[in-house]
Amino acid sequence: MKKSDLLVLLLMISACAGLRAQESRPNAVPVTLGQSVIALYGPWKFHIGDNPQWADPNFDDSHWETVDLTPTPQTTVPGVPIPGFVAGWESRGHPGYAGYAWYRMRVRISGADGPLTLLSPEWFDGAFQVFANGHPVGSYGKFNGSTPELDEGGGSRFALPVSADRPGPGRSTLIAFRFYMAPASLGTGVRGGMHGPPRIGLPGAATAVYRVEREQEYLRLASADAAGLLYFLFALLIAMIFAFSRSEKILLWPLGASVFAVIHSALISSTVAGWMNEVWLEALIGLASLVSGYLWLLTWWVYFGVQRARWLFKTILGLAIFNLAELEFFTIVLRIRTASPELLIAGRISGRVTGSAVFLVMITIVWLGWKGAERRQWPLFLAIFFQSFQVLVPWMSLLHMRTAWQPFGVIIPIDLISNCASLVCFSFVLFGQFRSSMQRQQATEDDLKQAQEVQHLLIPRNAPNVPGWLIESEYRPARNVGGDFFQILPGDDASLLIVVGDVSGKGLKAAMTVSAIVGALRGCAVRAPAEVLAYLNRVLHGQISGFATCAVASIAADGAMTIANAGHLSPYCNGKELPIASGLPLAIAAESSYEESHHKLTPGDRLTFISDGVVEATNGKRELFGFERAEEISNQPAAAIAEAAQRWGQEDDITVLTVACTA
After folding, report:
1. Would 444 be classed as within a structural domain?
2. C-alpha distances in angstroms, 77 versus 44, 183, 217?
3. What is the H or E stretch that residue 177 is in?
4. Residue 241 lies in a domain
5. Tell me: the pLDDT tens digits for 320-355?
6. CA dist 279 to 4, 327, 407, Å?
């Protein structure tokens, strides 16, 4: 059977009772119909091969084999959790045979003069065509090519009208099934043709039986739906944890594996819809299962902390590529009519070898992970232990060990049970990881809070009171801590040394650089702007990874101002940008010199320093605040300038410092 056949086989319906009377004449089974559906157990005439004449009711099939589909201890298959499932032609003298085969049976129908409905067997292998007295009445699959195309889905209904296809009462009707089974379905020794009887009855009764069978089929597929729901909830759990902690990139591996497992379960559940050719649907199901399986392998590789074993990653990748080529090749080629038995054996061997290699990789990951003491988590080892059963299922089947159960009509394979156990164990690992992530996040928030407190101590909240000067400042970081800085250092003679700057980058790293700059300023013995910048450049070069822009202004009590600039924005004086020379930012070159500019402030003049957070503010239309708007409002109070930029759309730290000459 195909890998998905066990998911599409139905339970025998108790309402279908076999009724066979004594034959009134050779090769004709009398059937009396009432408000019931009759199972055509046989005797069927069977022959392998293909010949269009075998549909002819006048063909002599007396030399053919006789097949009875009645379930007996001799015909049912041990270990298959489906009552009444009988073995196919492989176990009836044709082992290893794939291709065409015919079933023929004569019935004499009485008790029904109107149209009838023929139900296909509940369980069968491959595609088939149905003939009544030599006339085709329907098919399961497409027979318009050199090789039949099999459509996934359940059985079918076929109308038997009152016509030449079905003679009147008292005359027999030949029902013939022409089966085709691809070589890919071989492998268990019990495959081939019918695994249960066709049924015949009045349309109303047959339709009722058909609907019950479909409901039971959906019930049996509930295990696949349950697996899909389980993996969906698991993927949702991982996505929620990842949303809280984006830095945990390790979560992307099990998230991807779970998503493909959901896709795999959805494809299996969709087989009853018959929406796609069987070959391509099998290929998609195999691809989703393969991708999910190897993503789980990479999940174990990461979670067991063996990333240093790059050769193991390359081994997993190589196995995945080989397995993909092997899977798609045998999925398609073994459904070709001319596929040889040798090719089938090669496919089996290849599958066993690949599965063994995957199992060895899992053992290697566990062994290497056990040696790393930091990864010795018992739920992790239990998770990979339970998942290994999925790899061992083919070997268990080969040893005739039971791998599925069917309580209450629902097929529960052992890999579903083991996967559930694996996900439960892995959930403990995820919760532990989430708790550790929350602890690290809380520690980071505590560090940021402490850094914010330190930065508040380094950057003055209130401007000093210096006679003759009105000083205002606004500092609004984009995050908890920022990379802008300023210092106002008054002299004993009512002079001012003003330092305004911006560190490249944001966040805690930039705040630490600000701390280093402010600490260096407080230890600086010189007050000449060019010398201050040269001093800061020497201190910072080689000590920070980025750079810093800075403007230094020395203002005497009489308003004489000397200013030097290291790549910072030029200040504004009375609403106009001051023309000053600009040198290299700090920490770029080991030795840099800076040019000084001289200006004179008179009573009523206002000097305004801003950081690039003002001009780089961006609104919802992605428009910058820009230099023109900054210049227009540069003569306003510091709070008004900062508020205008922040209201426009803050993107970076905002610093505004104004100095007004009052006397």
Report:
1. no
2. 20, 20, 20
3. strand 172-181
4. yes
5. 888 888 777 776 666 655 556 667 677 777 778 888
6. 12, 12, 30
